[in-house]
UniProtKB/TrEMBL annotation:
Keywords in alphabetical order: Cell membrane, Membrane, Transmembrane, Transmembrane helix
InterPro entries: T2SS_GspF_dom (IPR018076)
Membrane topology reported for the UniProt record: Multi-pass membrane protein
Transmembrane segments: 39-61, 82-104, 110-126, 147-166, 258-280
Predominant subcellular localization, coarse grouping: membrane
Name by which UniProt lists this protein: Type II secretion system F family protein
Keyword Transmembrane helix assigned: yes
Species the sequence originates in: Castellaniella denitrificans
Chain ranges of the Type II secretion system protein GspF domain: 149-274
Location of the protein in the cell: Cell membrane
């Protein structure tokens, strides 16, 4: 049995090395973007991408176009490569689940079901990571928004126009996802896009309620001819108060979230420590 596992391990290692040797030169020769591979598994993604391209639907393209900018996904992630990553994760999940069932000496039917379940979980795993990353990036942008509004207010009150102030904030604000999203949106203005359109593009891809409120207020101020300084200052105060309310809400939710760990982990240990001397005395007394 030991020699069987050693042989299977060596065969898997040889297969991985062979795929790496065949995939890495292909990826280096056919990657038009010439981007640095983000991980060691990138050659396999590039090798599977041409095979997955016929199966890419418009819904997949639309979902990736929607969630990619929100999660800060790099530009070299096209729909076919993303589907290839999902297929690769499904294969890894099937192999791991099947190997686990084989090591547990499970029946063949159980092993097949485990492999199918592992493949299904592996296929949806990249999409779940993308959505979680988008949610985390959104929370970070909501935290950075009040300070960015303060910088924008200072630039406007110093005499700069709104486009110049936005470019100054995009170039000199602290590094973060909000600055990167504003920089990407402001780059559209250099292509000749109307200011209202690239601001709407920024609000759509940022997916932050504060940014949408800011873009709406700027559009109304542009139509009505309002002064931007008091408007931006009021927006900054509003976002700061909303950030405080979100922090207060999370603080109030903390006891509820701590209830399950306390009941499942802390209370049994406490009852065991308290009840052990009582149980010993009862046993000594003959009960």
């Amino acid at each position: 049995m030991a020699w069987l596992w050693i042989g299977l391990s060596l065969a898997a290692l040889a297969a991985c090395l062979g795929l790496w040797v065949l995939g890495a030169p292909w990826a280096a020769a056919h990657d038009a973007a010439r981007t640095r591979p983000p991980a060691l598994w990138w050659p396999w993604v590039m090798a599977l991408a041409p095979w997955c391209e016929p199966f890419v639907t418009w819904r997949m393209r639309r979902e990736l176009r929607r969630w990619g900018p929100r999660a800060g996904l790099a530009a070299h992630w096209r729909a076919d490569r993303w589907l290839a990553a999902c297929v690769l994760a499904a294969g890894c999940g099937a192999v791991l689940a099947g190997a686990g069932a084989l090591m547990a000496t499970a029946p063949p039917r159980v092993g097949m079901l485990s492999a199918l379940a592992g493949a299904a979980l592996g296929f949806v795993w990249p999409d779940q990571i993308l959505r979680r990353r988008a949610a985390a990036r959104r929370v970070r942008m909501m935290r950075e928004l009040p300070f960015m509004l303060d910088l924008l207010t200072l630039c406007v009150e110093a005499g700069l126009s709104l486009p110049a102030a936005l470019h100054q904030v995009a170039g000199h604000a602290p590094e973060g996802p909000l600055r990167q999203s504003l920089r990407d949106a402001a780059a559209l203005e250099r292509t000749g896009m109307d200011r209202k359109r690239w601001l709407s593009h920024w609000a759509e891809h940022a997916d932050v309620p504060g940014v949408r409120a800011l873009v709406s207020a700027l559009s109304q101020a542009d139509v009505m001819g309002m002064s931007l300084g008091p408007l931006l200052r009021a927006q900054a105060e509003r976002q700061r108060s909303e950030r405080f309310l979100r922090a207060e809400k999370l603080a109030l939710e903390a006891p509820v979230r701590m209830l399950f760990p306390m009941v499942s982990c802390i209370f049994p240990c406490t009852f065991l420590i308290i009840g052990f001397p009582v149980a010993v005395k009862l046993l000594d007394a003959g009960f």
